[in-house]
Amino acid sequence: MIQDIGTAANKLAENPRITDYDFWRTLKNLENEIFRKSTDRQPIPIEMLRWRAIIRQARSRRGMA
Predict the structure, then answer these.
(1) Mean pLDDT over all residues of the chain?
(2) So what's the pLDDT on residue 1?
């Protein structure tokens, strides 16, 4: 799974159609939703955590974080 995360992050980081703001906004939305679920004591889907890792790595590879 870690290789899948790295591969997806590379593809997103190299995509010129995705702006830095898109990365930031998507990560912010994911973080807010994860926080909401945790405060409501709801289960957090693994896919949500996976996408958070992908977006973080993609931002990092672009030199944003």
Answers:
(1) 94
(2) 59
What whole-number distance in Å separates Cα of residue 21 and Cα of residue 37?
Answer: 24
Nearest one of 64, 54, 65 to 12, comparing CA atoms = 54
On whether the CB atoms of residues 64 and 15 are closer than 8 A, the answer is no
Q: Which two tokens stand for residue 8?
A: 């997806």
pTM above 0.90, yes or no: no
SS3 content of the chain, % helix, strand, coil (to 5): 75, 0, 25
User: What count of other Cβ atoms lies within 10 Å of the Cβ of residue 46?
Assistant: 9
Q: What secondary structure letter does DSSP report for 42?
A: P
